[in-house]
């Protein structure tokens, strides 16, 4: 693996506000890396610093081994950027917009047409490509944004809130497209405040809070480190003390009673068969059981709540 993005002690202050407050970030080639956190936590500012679009107050940034402030053109050539609000010429068609980008890249007519055809096909805008962008939905604009990244043959794509404002189906389509690009070797950095929605596509994530990265790592590792398990089983049962019945059960990392007859069981694998067996063995009556994966939203809430408690106690 080789490191393609590295920041050390990155700080960006706007007057008294530290938008980014000491960020150390490493992204490896071919990863899908998520910058996740609520509005205002410093994700966009971090992205602007990676692209050399704003100057750090302190710290260093290297993108593909280059300092984006000193080599802005070299970085721009090799890194595709899709901002939160993508600017297209609304009166031009999708294809004409891409042609404009291709000209800026200095591509010859034949090469530009070839790349545009391939990109439109890839993002499923072949027919819509002939229509004015003013008629596009938000999802189509986002896909046209990705087409632009494709035309550039970027080594890294940096996508700011790519799924915001999209309906569930368009979100899934865009995430599938991002995964496909990653499988072909493109490194992807994306930001989002919708933690659960993007956790499925990210190899690693960094959770931002107030300009800092509180936690980072693989999603499964974060959920098991912070929550003690990767699965949550909700159990409804009568005539049983579930905490006692599961006391020494394997793979169970926590049992919390939510109300009489209803428990949340944290586990590091699908523990439903063992739970069912133990309820019955203890003479109880199982009335319902459901399972889901733990989400990054839960990790976020738990971690930053503890963080706040520690800060308050200090
Ligand atoms: N140009 C600026 N001038 C002053 N303050 C700014 C500027 N840009 C960002 N900030 C502040 O820095 C903090 C971090 O903002 P940033 O846009 O990086 O957060 P974000 O996590 O990307 O949020 P969002 O999802 O809303 O874009 C916020 O408090 C914001 O108000």
From TrEMBL:
Keyword Transport tagged: yes
Entries under InterPro entries matching the protein: AAA+_ATPase, ABC_transporter-like_ATP-bd, P-loop_NTPase
Membership in a protein family: Belongs to the ABC transporter superfamily.
Protein name: ABC transporter ATP-binding protein
This protein's UniProt keywords: ATP-binding, Nucleotide-binding, Transport
Record domain ABC transporter: where: 5-235
SMART domains, per the entry: AAA
Organism of provenance: Chelativorans petroleitrophicus
């Amino acid at each position: 693996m080789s490191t393609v993005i590295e920041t050390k002690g990155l700080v960006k202050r706007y007057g008294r506000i530290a938008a980014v407050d000491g960020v150390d970030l490493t992204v490896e080639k071919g990863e899908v890396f998520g910058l996740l956190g609520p509005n205002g936590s410093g994700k966009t500012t971090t992205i602007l610093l990676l692209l050399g679009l704003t100057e750090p107050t302190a710290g260093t940034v290297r993108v593909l081994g280059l300092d984006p402030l000193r080599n802005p053109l070299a970085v721009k050539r090799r890194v595709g950027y899709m901002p939160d609000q993508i600017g297209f010429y609304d009166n031009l068609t999708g294809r004409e917009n891409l042609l404009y980008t291709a000209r800026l890249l200095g591509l010859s007519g034949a090469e530009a047409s070839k790349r545009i055809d391939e990109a439109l096909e890839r993002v499923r805008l072949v027919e819509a490509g002939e229509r004015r962008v003013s008629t596009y939905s938000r999802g189509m604009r986002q896909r046209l944004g990705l087409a632009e990244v494709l035309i550039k043959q970027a080594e890294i794509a940096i996508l700011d809130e790519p799924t915001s404002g999209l309906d569930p189906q368009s979100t899934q389509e865009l995430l599938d497209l991002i995964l496909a690009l990653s499988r072909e070797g493109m490194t992807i950095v994306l930001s989002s405040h919708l933690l659960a929605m993007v956790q499925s596509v990210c190899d690693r994530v960094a959770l931002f809070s107030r300009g800092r990265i509180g936690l980072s790592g693989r999603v499964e590792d974060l959920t098991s480190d912070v929550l003690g398990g990767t699965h949550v089983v909700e159990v409804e049962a009568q005539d049983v003390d579930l905490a006692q019945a599961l006391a020494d059960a394997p793979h169970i990392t926590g049992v919390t009673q939510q109300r009489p007859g209803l428990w949340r069981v944290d586990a590091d694998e699908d523990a439903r068969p063992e739970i069912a067996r133990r309820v019955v063995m203890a003479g109880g009556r199982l009335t319902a059981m459901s399972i889901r994966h733990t989400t990054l939203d839960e990790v976020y809430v738990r971690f930053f709540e503890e963080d706040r408690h520690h800060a308050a106690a200090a």
